[in-house]
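Note to self: keep these together.
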Amino acid sequence: MTTSEQSGIVLGLERIIAFLEGTLPSDPRSKLQVVHVAGTNGKGSVCALVSEALITGRYTVGTFNSPHFLQPNDAVRIQGTPIPEAEYERLRQWINDLDAAKQSRHGRLTPFEQTTALALWWFAQNDVDIAVIEVGLGGARDATNVFGTADGRKGVGRSLVQCICPVDEDHVGIIGNTIEEIAMEKSGIMRPGSWIVIGNQDRSEAFHKIRQVAHRISPGRIINVRRHPAYDIHVPNFSIDPVDCPHRLPSPNPPPGWSMFKGGGMRCLRIKYPPSLDTYTSSHSRHTKETSAAESTPALVEIDLPLVLPGYYQAGNASVAFYTLYVLRTHFGFSKLKDAVIQVGFTNVRWPGRISWLSIADRRRELGSVPSSPSDIATLKSSSSGVEAGSGSDSPCSGSSGDNVSFDPNIRLDRWILADGAHNEPAAAELRKYVDTTLRRISQQRYIRATRNRQAASQLQVRWVVGFTQGKDMAAILNRLVQPGDSVWAVPFSQPKEMPWIKCESPANIVACLSKWENIQVEQFDHLSGAVDRMAAYNSDTHMNVVCGSLYLVADIYRELCIKPFGS
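Structure:
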């Protein structure tokens, strides 16, 4: 059986370790040191933040995410640029041929194991200074969990920092049947002597299990971010000290409207941290527990970290990313990671498909949609398709998100689609929170500026365009998203490349799930393009268009609108 014919998720490390050790010409792990990131939600954002800060510090950085977004090669990047597609295909075929010829007693590599081996080999061949690796599924038995201890004394390669992002019930039955079992599986990436950064955990059962494992594996080297002072605030006169970051890097050709540093007001996470990691180790020896920075030392350092990625939850991701970089700087010799460098990195970060505003202006022109006023014509002419907006002035919101969003009510909602993966219940709850904040601020601004009357301003609703992977708890996710008066359009998504185990839920099943719901409008579409055409044809700015439920569906909307977030 070839790997292309395999159609299931097969966890375990025997195949990938045997291949790295005995089949490749040399073991790429021996040249790599990594930051390893696990969790249910937030892994990708943490990887993006850590990678961008390291790149800003002029380190050569490999990043491996799972799953890929638009194409398989975009999951494997150096300096934020995907491996060339031709190079990806060549290496993939080479690895497949080596695997087939070896005929290992452990069996053939799975597709994900092949991609993991490819990423590690490419990173090693290009002499990256550090690799930021996102766990594919779970942790302990995931193909990325193949690195040794930070001091290099045990295992091959060096896992310097392990991050555990928020853990919740996802992939139940595959990586565990309870939240404690899932947390245990994800904690399996921890290494003795390494530093462990524990993100904010909404589930107390998960937190206690993660902390228990961390204390057993690497006592005295644990940073629990929720125990340290951090505040999500708006900084009116945000600036970055040019002395500490004289080589501020421009973003690599960002699409128009991407959130860029402009030197003005900024939503920030204000963190107060101790100047030395010695406070953690000495504190642990005295109290045998992780201690808050406030308790450890009276001389805390304060930093404002730009929160460019939209969403309330990004504050928690930024905390995990900052303390990861803090450990790399103070303990592992990454001395170029000055505070200003981290600030610039966080400002330039890009992470597509997560609360992203997408323009459909050109689609409207193609369909001949008629603007309703001269000002709308001007708006359409100034917009462009293929635009992904963060918090730029040409998106419906001109702030980042959360409590510090500033909306322009003159930009019509029917020009935009809000896209977010929201593939599980916690992510859906965060998306709904962001949507509610957006609608509330738009209503307020429209009323204040007299662009809409009070009655119309109170009638803003949501049009949910949803698609799900088979096996997801659709009812729980929809219950978090949909409210009376909303519309739900059920659509399919295309089959992701190199992921034969992923199956799309049929639109009919989604509609059936909503059959007993009251005061909502439900429709189903055979293709996403039909739903996009319908959205583009409407001339009404009383509905917010939101595409969500699966990252694979979000990738389809990017393809549909010809948006290439990682470049051509």
